[in-house]
Structures are given as C-alpha cells and as structure tokens.
Write a structure and sequence with these properties.
heterodimer, A: alpha/beta, Rossmann fold, 2 domains, six-stranded mixed β-sheet, four-stranded antiparallel β-sheet, 9 helices, B: mainly alpha, MetI-like fold, 8 helices
Chain lengths: ~250, ~220
C-alpha cells in the first residue's frame, strides 16, 4: 500500500455479492477510495465491473455486502437512497442523456428538480458546468444534435453539477468513435488533477496508467489483484493479469 | 332550388347549431379527461405494483372489449336500477371518458415501453425518485411519441360522440335525425351533418398537427 495517501476514506465497499439469474456476478468485492483518489477498475468483459459500479449507487441492489459514503452507510430505502445517489455522480457507457432536454436542460434538471435550486441559480451553475467541459456553445442543442464525445461531456457535466463526493465512470469511452475518445479522456483527466474522487471502469490502458492512483484487476467477480499502475503493469503478481494487460494493450494501444 | 336553400338556412342550420354546440361540449369534456385517465392507467400498468398493474389491465380489457354503445346503455339505463342516475349528457361524457382512456392508455403504454431503460436509470442516478423520473423524464418523452396514436383516438371520439344520441342526448346527429324525420329530408340533412363533422375533424386534426410540430424535438419520436 502506498504511503502518503492518508486522507479520509470517501467510499468504502465491503464484501459485495450479486447474483443474476442464478449466476454469481460479484463474489465478495471490498475496497476503499480515499479523497482525491482515482481508482481504475480493469478486467475482461463479463467480470461484473459495471455491475459493481451499479451496486455502489444501488441502481442494482447487491445481495450482500455493505457500502459507506463518507462514513454513512448506504442503505436502499426509498427516502435514503435518493440522498446518496445525489452524492455519487454516474457516467454511463451510452451516455443516457435525457433525449427531450437540451444540453443545458440535462445539466439543469437535477439542480431544479432534485436539489430544488432556484431557476436562475440553476441556470448559472449549469452554464458553468458546461463551460468546464467546453460545451457552453452547444448549450441549446438536443442530444441528437451532439456528437458522441459531446454527449458524454454533457453527461459528465450533468453529474458534476450535483457536486458529488465521488464520480463513477462506467466505460465512458467504449461507445465512442476513436477520434472522439480524446476529448472525453481530457475532461476526466482534468477532474483527476483537480482532485475529484473517482472510480473508473475502462479499457483505455494508457489512460488508466497515467491517471490512476490504484488499478484494480477484476476477474470472475473477484478482485484478483490491485496496486499502483507501475506495479500492475511492470510487475503483476499473477500470470493472468499479465496476459490480460498484454492482450488489451495490443488491442487498444497505449 | 330556393326552397332548398330556405330549408337549409332557416330551418336546418339553426337547429343543427344547437346540436353542434352539444357535440362540441361533449368532446371538450371528454378529450382532456380521457387523456389524463389514459396516462394514469398507462403509468399504473407499467410502473404499478402487481395489483395496480393487474387492475389497469383488466380495465383496459373490459373497455376495449365491449361496444361503447353497451357501455353507454349500462351507464344510462342500467345504473338507475342501483340508484345511480345521470343526465343524458353526463352519462355520455362519462362513457366517452371511460372508453377513450382505455385506448389512450394503450398508445401511451406502448410509448412508455419504447423509452430506453437508460433514461430511468440516469434519472435515478441523479437522485430522482421514481415519481419524479416518470414525471420529468419518462412522460415528456413518451407523450410526444404517443401523439400520433392519441390523435387518432381523439378524432374517433369526435365521430363516436354521435352515440350520445342513443342515450337521448340530443347532439349533432340527434338534432339532424329529428329534423330529417320531421321534414322527411334525410339526404340533405345528413349530408350537412356529415359536412359539419368533417369540419370539426379537420379543425381538430389541424390543431393536433400543430401541437405535434410545436412539441417536436430533434431525435425524439
């Protein structure tokens, strides 16, 4: 364990289990995320990486296990869960922008409807957030009028507007054309630099290497190994990790 | 020929005017209430618990599966036997609302189910409750998609409002029938009645088209 990161734990995940249609998807996942840390989760598809993210903000309810956000246990009751979800920003692989709202509307709606913010104030904040991802000029365009990269940046702005304690990224660039990946990674990288606490599922190994404080390698519903990027890339404990990294690096490049 | 125009202008149109007003009143009450109930039933079917969903489904089966005329007869002639009395107009309006909402609900249910599940997920991820997500995210999209289907039902409603006459509510068709019988001029009277319906349907169609255009969003629908 890397010394020096002795900051507060923002998110703690303990022994998460999830079955789906009789199949074990998650078989006991535990880890801690400290303030300002970027954790990158990698692993072959079908190992439950997305399910894990969804369990964290209870979009999928885990069968077993506990989660704490800033020391408070995340419990799925109707009243409670909406409070927790506001504090966890989620970015989906396929954006899931609200199709009937403009870019601005997408960023605004959480502020006005969930945070009950005053309309003008919400507008100001939404414009700010769009500026941060470089899209203030696209504010009045609808999702169908945006490119994939722009859509994903709006969805990041939408999540950030809620002032989350932690951001969850579920393969944010997997649905993008190669030439659009860069602009999204740029935004995420800036967030990391500014000290946002993040969990990121991705296949972009070069990016993972440059941005992660810790990489978690998941396989078959478990964490096989984890550690700082240089350790995992240069000196993995398991042959399996080595093989995966080799294969994915060949496939996606650095 | 003069006599013909005289009949149309001095006798037919004035008496049809009253009837037309009644028809307009029938549809003005029935359309919005039918739509609102239709939305509720559709939401109940898709998002309700097992019991609510089942009840909504049974409702739709019953009201789509029986003739409107039978429903009107039950409302107007049947219910008095259990002590419930409606005026002809009220019976007709209730019948139209109950029937049209069943059809609306099917168009709206289809539209709701066509919305990608990611929309609900993203709404919940923002911290919206189920109800908020349905109100602010799902319905604004689903209702836009349901406009063509619901328009169809509304246009039907304009025409099947003529069934109100079967429960003695004298609307346009009824007024026409009375005049036609009195003067024995069926062809002339019902031609004019038909034209008035055509005008009403055209106005409603135009209005609904404008509404659809106004609410149009790029990439949606």
């Amino acid at each position: 364990m890397q010394k020096g990161i002795d900051k507060v734990v923002v998110l703690e995940v303990e022994d998460i289990h999830k079955k789906y249609r009789g199949q074990d998807i998650l078989k006991g996942i535990s880890f801690k995320v400290r303030k300002g840390e970027t954790k990158v989760i990698i692993g072959p598809s079908g190992t439950g990486k997305s399910t894990l993210l969804r369990c964290i903000n209870q979009l999928t309810i885990p069968d077993k296990g506990r989660i704490w956000l800033e020391g408070e246990e995340v419990i799925h009751t109707k009243k409670n869960i909406n409070q927790f979800r506001q504090k966890m920003g989620m970015v989906f692989q396929d954006f899931n922008l609200f199709d009937h709202l403009t870019a601005l509307g997408n960023v605004e709606i959480g502020l006005t409807r969930v945070k009950r913010m005053d309309k003008d104030e919400a507008r100001q904040k939404a414009i700010e957030e769009l500026k941060k991802v470089g899209l203030e000029e696209q504010a009045n365009l609808y999702p169908a009028q945006l490119s994939g990269g722009q859509k994903q940046r709006v969805s990041i702005a939408r999540a950030l507007a809620m002032d989350p304690k932690v951001m969850l990224f579920d393969e944010p660039t997997s649905a993008l054309d190669p030439e659009l990946i860069g602009e999204v990674l740029e935004v995420i990288k800036n967030l990391a630099i500014q000290g946002m606490t993040m969990i990121l599922v991705t296949h972009e190994m070069g990016f993972a290497r440059s941005v992660a404080n810790e990489i978690i390698f998941m396989e078959d519903g478990k964490i096989l190994e984890s550690g700082p990027p240089y350790q995992l890339f240069n000196n993995p404990k398991y042959e399996r990790t080595k093989r995966f990294l080799k294969k994915i690096t060949e496939l996606y490049g650095e | 020929m003069n006599e013909f125009y005289y009949f149309i202008r001095e006798i037919l149109l004035p008496s049809l005017f009253e009837g037309t007003l009644v028809t307009i009143k029938l549809i003005i009450f029935s359309i919005p209430l039918g739509l609102i109930l239709g939305v509720l039933i559709a939401v109940g079917r898709v998002y309700g618990n097992r019991i609510i969903s089942f009840l909504c489904a049974v409702y739709v089966i019953f009201f789509r599966g029986t003739p409107l005329l039978v429903q009107l007869f039950i409302l107007y002639y049947g219910l008095p036997s259990v002590g419930i009395f409606f005026s002809p107009f009220v019976a007709a309006v209730i019948g139209f609302i109950l029937c049209s909402c069943a059809y609306h609900s099917e168009y709206i249910r289809g539209a709701i189910q066509s919305i990608k599940s990611g929309q609900m997920m993203a709404a919940e991820a923002l911290g919206m409750s189920r109800v908020q997500a349905i109100l602010y995210i799902i319905l604004p999209q689903a209702l836009r998609r349901a406009i063509p289907g619901c328009s169809n039902e509304i246009i039907y409603l304009v025409k099947y409002s003529s069934l109100a006459f079967m429960v003695t509510c004298v609307e346009l068709t009824g007024a026409g029938k009375i005049i036609a019988t009195r003067y024995f001029k069926y062809t002339e009277v019902f031609l004019v009645v038909g034209i008035i319906y055509l005008l009403m349907v055209s106005v409603v169609t135009k209005f609904l088209d404008m509404l659809e255009k106004k609410l149009e969003i790029p990439g949606l629908g």
